[in-house]
Amino acid sequence: MVGLTVNVALAQTSKQTDPMSIYRATPPRINDLVHTRLDVRFDYKKRYLYGKEWVTLKPHFYATDTLRLDAKGMDLKKISLVKNGKNTPLKFTYDGLSAAIQLDKVYHNNESYTIFIDYTAKPDELKAKGSAAIRDAKGLYFINPDSAIKDKPVQIWTQGETESSSAWFPTIDQTQQKTTDEISMTVPAKYVTLSNGRLASQKNNGNGTRTDTWKMALPHSPYLFMMAVGDFKIYHDKWRNKPVDYYLEPKYAPYAKQIFGMTPEIMEFYSKILGVDYPWNKYAQIVVRDYVSGAMENTSATLCGEYVQETPRELLDANYDNGRLTIAHELFHQWFGDFVTAENWTNITVNESFADFSETLWAEHKYGKDEGGAHIHSELQRYLKAPGSNTKNLVRFHYVNKEDVFDRVSYSKGGCILNMMRNYLGEAAFFKGLNIYLKTNAFKTGEAQQLRLALEEASGRDLNWFFNEWYYGAGHPLLNISYNWDGDTKTETVYLKQTQDGQIFKLPMAFDVYANGKKERYKVWMNHAADTLTFHVTSKPDLVNVDGDKVLVCVKTDNKTPDEFVFQYFHAPLYLDRLEAIDAAKAAQGDIGAQKVLIAALGDKYYGLRIRAIDALDMKNDRIRNAAQPMLALLAQTDKNTLVQAAAIKVLGELKAPGNMNLFKQALNSQSYAVQGAALTAINLLDPALALKLAKGFEKDNKGPLTKAMAAVYKTNVVSGT
């Protein structure tokens, strides 16, 4: 799920309850789900689901004569035992959240039994609280069911995570449960349906309705069940010989391939690096209205919020944006989350940390090391900036509400930790370990200890120290780095000091020493709160680059000189190397070396760093302005990236130079909303009346940055009385 990667605040632990006072054990498994068959129809007026369910179970280990099913806010009309073709009523009690059922006898774990339930789900009458990550918890959603809102589609869809599937069908709503399923939906014949698995049959009922039956032949957890109903257009793609389908609103259907077309390529990439082929019979992605989170990795059928649905003009400015990374994130969940599922919410890291990490994997593979470096760095910053994150373990046995674990620790920090472990073990051993984890726990559940064992088996290295620090401990190092060169002894000394409260981290890292035109790499360990490392070099190093692979999960205070940062920009290869140098130059723009860095960075190979350099420019500095202005004009007109063009136009516009007016007018012809918005803003600074006239010409087609620019133009002209 990507509720935390798309404009959603993070869940906060309740201030009223100390989470450390509550230990969250894995729920005992008394009965196991085997197969779930549902036959449902919908009352759009009442917003009810009328359901019939046949659920087959067996005792997990110990014999039992009772069954408890989660069933939130339902009318339970009948509960019967199905035996020899007959339904025998069973006694049960119901408290509005779960049903305690008395079975007809004691069953042993070599016996299965089937229960029939006739029920009504009333999701809109259910008093269920969501969280900041998943904003609602009623399980089943009727969108505009009475068509009261013009031009808004009528839809039905479900959201099971965390434990909301039991708001639309009775089940054992736990991640550790796995069941095959069959879902029959009777819907208005004009609509299409989607669910897990394959569409097995369609029956026209002759009364304006149709019954679609979907079958999932492989076991998966109840929270991953899904249904969607509505007016969707389906684009049929494929990966190898498996169907890959994209469900979109009709007006976005022409752009389906542009929006989702990378999906088969990602499926191939993940299958190869994991050594486990995509495990399900099909993959579908559907975009719905009013979704309560970002996206959800329902088995074989991912459900996305409408932000993923974009026009070609919006996609021009997208780069590796929320929509693109959502596609990568949710698809990785089909392995980490669906194929192998977190045993409990305590271990959500084996779902969400992996999906977060996959965003970096795909960025590196598809767009290059710089895009991957930029993304993992942004994830580190999101973790570091999240209030209270440094007090929470990645594996969390103590929390107030299960929703609390869907936070920046489970997502962003967990992804960064996996990236760090990949670097420590090496690509081959790391992915071999993931392969062992997936194959060992296929169609079952997993937890962090099983991941550790798989990685140890692959690498032959003990990883208890790593998991104790990063999975079962909280926080991160605050790392202070300082340097000293002794010309007499030809010795470079590096002083490392961890200054955080709490645990001291054991840190393997690379040191790159640049001297005499060459780079020497040293693999070192920091084992204590303060460590001193010395290197014998024939001449003073131009640069000692601590954490040369830029993978440490930490906050660094790196006491390099301005000249060392300049050298770093031009010689160290990684995204973060150059970013650090640009940021250092931004703070020292009176320095000639810093100016060289900023001007050079305007032509950096990575668009994100070109934008960073543009935004860093102090255009009041004569030397910088004179050097940068012609380059900015060139970037504004010819850069391959529209966001770079827009950033350059913004800075040029703030100069209020009439000589740039033609450039701004020309930029209005761009298909990019970002470029048009920047150009209109720049024109407004020079000639508000002209900007007002031009803005009116965009009223039929504007989004995002252009819409904001138009609003600013109208406001300026109202204030000025134009």
Can you walk me through this structure?
The chain is of the alpha+beta class and 722 residues long. It is built from 20 helices and 29 strands. Strands 5-4-8-2-1-11-14-13 form an 8-stranded mixed β-sheet, with no helix packed on it. A 5-stranded mixed β-sheet has the order 16-17-18-20-19. A hairpin with a 4-residue loop joins strand 1 and strand 2. Helix 7 packs across helix 8 and helix 8 crosses helix 9. The two termini are 49 Å apart. About 2% of the residues have low confidence.
Percent helix: 25-40%
| Topology, number of strands | 29
Oligomeric state of this protein: single chain
Average pLDDT across residues?
Answer: 95
Number of helices, where a helix is a run of at least 4 consecutive DSSP H or I residues: 20
The biggest sheet amounts to:
8 strands, mixed
- Fraction of residues in β-strands: 25-35%
Strand order of the largest sheet: 5-4-8-2-1-11-14-13
Structural class: alpha+beta
Low-confidence stretches: 4-14
End-to-end separation in angstroms reads 49 Å
> Could you tell me the radius of gyration in angstroms?
29 Å
How would you sum up the global shape?
Answer: globular
